[in-house]
Each structure stands twice: as structure tokens, then as C-alpha cells.
Amino acid sequence: MENARVMSKPCFWYNGQLIEGNSLSLTIDEPGFIYGATVFTTLRVYHQSLDHPLTHWTNHCHRLQSSLQAFGWQQPDWEQLRQGAQSLITLYPVLRITLFPDGRELIMGRPLPANLAQWQEQGITAWVAESSSVKFHRCLPTHKTGNYLSPWLAKQMAQNMGAQEAILVDNHGNWLETSTGNLWGWRDGQWWTPPVEAGILPGVMRSHLIKWLTCQNQRVREEPWSPELVGQLDAIAYTNCVVEVVPIHRVIQENSERVYDPLHPVFQDLRKY
């Protein structure tokens, strides 16, 4: 089991050093701490190899680099960053890489979700994050920044309702993404996913699946998920690089529920990527 790799004493990589423990010292004026001024990516390491094609190391680095360029931040020492990741892959199956505006890197490891196999097989429950008191809109949605309060809060509220994920929506009620991944739906013999232009994160797994499905001569409809479309989907799932493909079998929205088939045969095909 991949999770069996995790060591008893935690360790992490920070600014060129492997550190044992679970605490980090930052200055009180650190913008990453005060404002969430960081960018990050979370990847799953397959077979303890950064070069394994499913690890998508290069794609994760490219996304980080793109955000740094957009923000005008300093590039990290990429060789040092890879060295840090390499030092942790025998210990953890999941790595979160965080970059600071001045080029420092922080890499933390963690196990896979304990219930992942069950989620993949049976599906999960999701809550549509609509509240009269809070608008759950991600900051700079096409970039994965440390200002992640909105999706984090939405997921906490979803869990309080017995759900595992939250579905973020726009001002018109269109579904955008989950708090940790991208949405996929099956209808009329083809896959549907919300477009990046709607204000979602272009996930690494999402990009990979679109490319793979296109190579399989399957059309992917990147269109807004209106309430009407959502009601017509036969099956839905969410994806990210850690959980891969997880069906959503039940959706809670206000005082109503929607039920979808988590065992729909299209999921077996999608997992062949």
C-alpha cells in the first residue's frame, strides 16, 4: 500500500533543507502567512518516481511557473526544488509544493485519503455551496494560490452536512468545480466539463483527461454547467491528481437532493487513461 510508506517522524523540505518535525519558523511580516501570497500544487507520486508519466511532474512545474510569471514573482531554484521532492518521495505518496514570492520552496508530504478506495468504488456525497451569508468564490481562480479560504470553508461546511465535497457555483447558479477538483459529467454519449473561462482552476488531471479523451476520439464538451444541464447528466464525478476519478452519487442542494449512478460503466472507461 502506498500509504504504508509514511514515516513515524514527520519531515518536510524548506528552502534547500530537509527538516525533521512539523513546525516552520516564519517572520511576522511574511506575506505568505499574512495574505496567502503563495502558489502551490499537489501531486501524487506513482511508483516513487517523479518521472513516472502519471506523476505529471513537468506539468505541475509548468503550472507553477506560469503563475509565478503572471504575478511577477521570483522563480525558485528548480533543481533544488526537484531535489527536495526527491528526498520525500520514498516517504510520502502525496506531495504539496508551495512557492513563496521570493523564490523559497516548501514541500510537505502526506498519505493518500484513508477512504479513497471506497470513494472511487461507491462514490461520494457533495453539497452545492450556496449560502445567504457567504459567497464561495475562489480568489484568482485560474491560479492555485495560498488564499484558499473560500474552498476550504465550503468543504468544512459540506462535511458538517455529512458530505465529502463542496460544489462551488457562480452568481447564476452554474456549477464550477468542487472545493478540491474539477467536475465531469456524462450525457448524450460524451463527457462534459465546465470551461476554464467560467472561472475554474485548470487542473493538471483535467488537462490530461481532455487530451487523453481527444486521442481516443471522444469529444469533450467544455460548456457552462447550468442548472438545466446538471439535471440532464447521467453520471458525474470529480477529478484531481491525488484522488484520480471519484464518482459523485448524491448531491445536496438547499432542501433537495439529486442522485447519480456511481457505477455507470463510463467511469471504467475514463479510468483507463
TrEMBL record:
Gene Ontology biological process terms, A to Z: carboxylic acid biosynthetic process
Chain ranges passing through the membrane: none
SUPFAM superfamilies hit by this protein: D-aminoacid aminotransferase-like PLP-dependent enzymes
One cellular component (GO) term of this entry: cytosol
UniProt cross-references to InterPro entries, sorted A to Z: Aminotrans_IV, Aminotransferase-like, BCAT-like_C, BCAT-like_N, Class-IV_PLP-Dep_Aminotrnsfr
Presence of keyword Ubl conjugation: no
PANTHER family with a match to the protein in the record: AMINO-ACID AMINOTRANSFERASE, AMINODEOXYCHORISMATE LYASE
Family in the record: Belongs to the class-IV pyridoxal-phosphate-dependent aminotransferase family.
Protein name (database record): Branched-chain amino acid aminotransferase/4-amino-4-deoxychorismate lyase
